[in-house]
Amino acid sequence: MSDDEGSSDVVSLTTIKGGAAVEKFNYALHRVLENIDDPNTDADAIRAIKLTVKMKPSPDRAEVAYSIQVEAKLAPPMADGGIMYVGRRQGGLVAVDYNPKQPDMFDPDRGADIQPLRSAKKEVES
Q1: Which one of 15, 67, 72, 75 has the fewest CB atoms closer than 10 angstroms to its CB?
Q2: What is residue 62's predicted lDDT score, i.e. its pLDDT?
Q3: Helical (H) or strand (E) element with 115
């Protein structure tokens, strides 16, 4: 380390833009840790944090414009799925998450007015 590097006005990763790079990285790290802890994500998925510092010097090289960007690559939520049943209600198509051929006997409003797309009789003839 040279004498200049210990000075408070020398730019480093911890001092650039008042510590913005470290602050942005720590924020991304927190998001990644929350994503790892989320039971709705794949535990084996790889997460990543990318810190990019871009610098563009002036023609005389006396000034350097810079930008600091941090990107967190998180695991997406796991897919959910199931089966939906398609039928007709009052002439229009509807989809429901229960089988209208087996209406809930404790809820007369559920499934009683949905007609399956194919009747059992047609399926037997096919």
Answers
A1: 67
A2: 97
A3: strand 115-116
Which domain does 67 fall in, by range? 3-73
Q: Does 101 share its domain with 64?
A: no
pLDDT at 123: 47
Cα-based distances in Å from 55 to 11, 61, 63, 125: 13, 11, 10, 74
Whether residues 69 and 98 share a domain: the answer is: no
Contact 119, 88 (CB under 8 A): no
* Predicted pLDDT at 5: 53
Q: Are residues 27 and 68 in the same domain?
A: yes
Where in 3-109 does DSSP place strands (E)?
48-57, 64-73, 85-89, 92-96
What whole-number distance in Å separates Cα of residue 115 and Cα of residue 107?
Answer: 17
Low-confidence ranges of the chain (pLDDT < 50): 1, 105-106, 120-124, 126
Residues 67 and 107 both lie in one domain: no
Task: Report the pLDDT value the prediction gives residue 3, as an integer from 0 to 100.
Answer: 52
